[in-house]
Amino acid sequence: MKKIILLIMAMLLFQVSNGQDAEVFFQRGNEKNKISRFRQAIAQYDKAIELKPDYADAYLFRAMAKGDLGDNLGALVDYTTAIELNPQNADGYNNRGNAKDDLGDHKGAVTDYDKALELNPKYTNAYYNRGLAKIRSGDRDGGCLDFSKAGELGLDRAYDSIKKHCQ
């Protein structure tokens, strides 16, 4: 009985240790990201995910680094995993929408921005990004309405987009 209890305690300690180690690698990845060392950041996020496969933020941030390197397909896969692990994170939907838009899937992007706005109705960047995707997919009026909403919520660059696309 003592052996079983010791084994369970060792397993729990190992899981806690791995979670803490995963956090260390995640933070290292963030530091690399801040100085635009995206490949090094990805390597750190890889290690965090290896130690903690359900680490949604590590997938999210790795996706952002992949996107910064132009790997939009890789980013799309990681954003999807991050969303599966944490479906309440509006950033995951917004950022996956950006990846889809960059890949030319403007209608798929709009769907993701819609979900981001459902989760966070004051998400200015999601309104702005949805406006761009709508413009690109031929919905000028819808895009202009989204730019207007983003501007009302305080995103000043939305007004530049209104001047460019809506007048």
Overall description:
The model is unreliable at 9-18 (pLDDT under 50). The chain is built from nine helices and no strands. It has helices at residues 2-34, 38-51, 56-68, 72-85, 90-102, 106-119, 124-136, 140-152, 157-165. Helix content is 81%, strand content 0%. The protein folds into two domains: 1-87, Tetratricopeptide repeat domain (Serine Threonine Protein Phosphatase 5, Tetratricopeptide repeat, Alpha Horseshoe); 110-167, Serine Threonine Protein Phosphatase 5, Tetratricopeptide repeat, CATH 1.25.40. The longest helix has 33 residues, at 2-34. Helix 1 (2-34) runs antiparallel to helix 2, helix 3 (56-68) packs antiparallel against helix 4 and helix 5 packs parallel to helix 7 (124-136). It is elongated, with a radius of gyration of 20 Å. With 167 residues, the protein is an all-alpha fold.
Give the number of helices. 9
β-strand number: 0
Largest sheet: none
The helix content is: over 70%
Total number of domains? 2
Keywords:
9 helices, Serine Threonine Protein Phosphatase 5, Tetratricopeptide repeat, 81% helix, 167 residues
In short:
It contains 9 helices and no strands. The protein is mostly helical.
